[in-house]
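worker-3 :: picked DUF1656 domain-containing protein
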Amino acid sequence: MSGEIDIYGVFIPSLLAWMVIAFFVTGALRFVLARVGFYKLVWHRSLFNLALYVLVLGATVTLIHWLKP
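worker-3 :: tokens ->
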């Protein structure tokens, strides 16, 4: 992988694509955590959501590099 994704002649950094994937996964996790009532145990919801996003982004990058041939 060269670090860029070509979409109809427009080069997009791979990190941007991974960030979009992590954003949607984090959104789904936030929905599930809110439905379960997990946020009642969290002191600062915004900081927790930021940390959750960073963890999901790191897991996404690690998973993609691990799956790379």
